[in-house]
């Protein structure tokens, strides 16, 4: 029996911003003990959330669920300034786990809006990161989700426009939307797909590098994880069967029938052990040969907030 090939695109799984956000909650639990309130899922992964919950983190969707003066962590996806102001008004002890690369987009939005530009945010309506970034300059920011929307957009002054994007979109889709914006507003300022973070673009490049050889692509990640969904779409757009799986238990053995080469990757919020579990499930179906397929080596690290640095 020939061994089935299991390709492991790299980078995959946790990014530096997710590791930092999880570490913030862990350190707060160690230092202050439970409960540590967290506004929204710290990252979009059910296993990460359940693990922290079991250790005393309490996830809430609104600040009014947090008792006065309690400790509250803002999730990696960022918050609108109005949420920070509300936390201060309620006397909460807020710790910000916003990924520094999301914070950078917030700073760009503020700078552009303060200069008098309309800010065009490329992103998906309702996603937590988009809600936060739209909140930086709500009166001056408009959301576009497609090239068609970009082409039809009307703004106050066509010579004063800047575009930005959500950090976890498809690189090729953002390039298309940016091109449509440039056609619509020739003087627009913006940096192509540069707001897409290194982790998102590296994971996409790694899947793109193996998809031509794969009969099946499995992406470990939760259903609400934008960057994970983009990996499934990329594989599917290349004509390869692709599924998003929460964990090994979600793998349907019938998907593997006739799949001689399977790629297994994970979104930036999915713990690496879940990938090992998926590989183990595949191994249980017959012999496998596991091949790492790196396209980049990630060395990015982000400092913890000042109060949590050190031992
Ligand atoms: C914060 C910002 C970007 O859904 P999305 O891909 O944005 O989020 P996660 O939690 O799945 O991935 C990490 C992350 C956090 N990405
Ligand atoms: Fe940050 Fe990108 Fe990860 S924005 S949390 S480095 S997916």
Offer a few descriptive terms:
311 residues; alpha/beta; Cobalt-precorrin-4 Transmethylase, domain 1; binds pyridin-2-ylmethyl trihydrogen diphosphate; binds FE3-S4 cluster
How would the blueprint of this fold be written?
Blueprint (H helix, E strand, L loop, with lengths): L3 E7 L5 H17 L3 E4 L6 H9 L2 E4 L10 E4 L6 H9 L3 E4 L3 H15 L3 E5 L5 H7 L6 E4 L2 H5 L9 E5 L5 H14 L13 H13 L5 E5 L5 H12 L3 E5 L15 E6 L5 H12 L4 E7 L17
Parallel strand pairs: 1-11, 1-12, 2-3, 2-4, 4-5, 6-7, 6-8, 9-10, 9-11
Helix pairs in contact: 8-9
Can you describe what's shown?
By secondary structure, this protein is an alpha/beta fold. The chain has three domains: 108 residues, Cobalt-precorrin-4 Transmethylase, domain 1 (3-Layer(aba) Sandwich), CATH 3.40.1010.20; 84 residues, Rossmann fold (3-Layer(aba) Sandwich), CATH 3.40.50; 95 residues, Cobalt-precorrin-4 Transmethylase, domain 1 (3-Layer(aba) Sandwich), CATH 3.40.1010. The protein is 36% helix and 19% strand. The chain is built from ten helices and twelve strands. It has a five-stranded parallel beta sheet with strand order 10-9-11-1-12, sandwiched between helices. Strands 3-2-4-5 form a four-stranded parallel beta sheet, with helices on both faces. It has a three-stranded parallel beta sheet with strand order 7-6-8, with helices on both faces. The model has no long low-confidence stretch (mean pLDDT 98). The site of FE3-S4 cluster has 15 residues, from helix 1, helix 4 and helix 8. FE3-S4 cluster binds next to helix 1, helix 4 and helix 8.
């Amino acid at each position: 029996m020939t061994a089935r090939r299991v390709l492991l695109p790299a980078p995959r799984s946790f990014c530096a911003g997710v590791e930092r956000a999880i570490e913030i909650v862990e350190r707060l639990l160690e230092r202050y003990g439970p409960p540590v309130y967290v506004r929204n899922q710290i990252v979009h992964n059910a296993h990460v959330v359940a693990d922290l919950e079991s250790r005393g983190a309490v996830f809430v969707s609104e600040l009014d669920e947090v008792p006065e003066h309690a400790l509250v962590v803002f999730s990696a996806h960022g918050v609108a300034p109005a949420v920070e102001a509300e936390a201060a008004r309620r006397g909460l002890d807020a710790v910000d786990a916003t990924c520094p690369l999301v914070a950078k987009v917030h700073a760009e939005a503020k700078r552009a809006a303060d200069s008098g530009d309309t800010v065009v945010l490329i992103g998906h309506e309702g996603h937590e990161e988009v809600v936060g970034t739209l909140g930086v300059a709500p009166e001056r920011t408009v959301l576009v989700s497609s090239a068609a929307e970009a082409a039809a957009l009307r703004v106050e002054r066509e010579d004063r426009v800047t575009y930005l994007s959500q950090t976890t979109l498809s690189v090729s889709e953002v390039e298309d939307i940016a091109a449509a914006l440039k056609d619509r507003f020739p003087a627009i300022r913006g940096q192509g797909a540069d707001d897409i973070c290194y982790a998102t673009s590296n994971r996409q490049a790694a899947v793109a590098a193996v998809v031509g050889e794969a009969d099946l692509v499995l992406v470990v990640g939760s259903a609400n994880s934008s960057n994970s969904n983009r990996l499934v779409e990329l594989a599917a757009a290349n004509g390869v069967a692709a599924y998003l799986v929460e964990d090994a238990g979600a793998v349907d053995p019938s998907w593997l029938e006739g799949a001689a080469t399977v790629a297994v990757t994970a979104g930036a919020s999915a713990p690496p052990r879940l990938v090992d579990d998926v590989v183990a499930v595949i191994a249980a179906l017959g012999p496998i040969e596991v091949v790492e397929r790196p396209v980049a080596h990630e060395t990015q690290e982000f400092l913890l907030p000042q109060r949590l640095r050190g031992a």
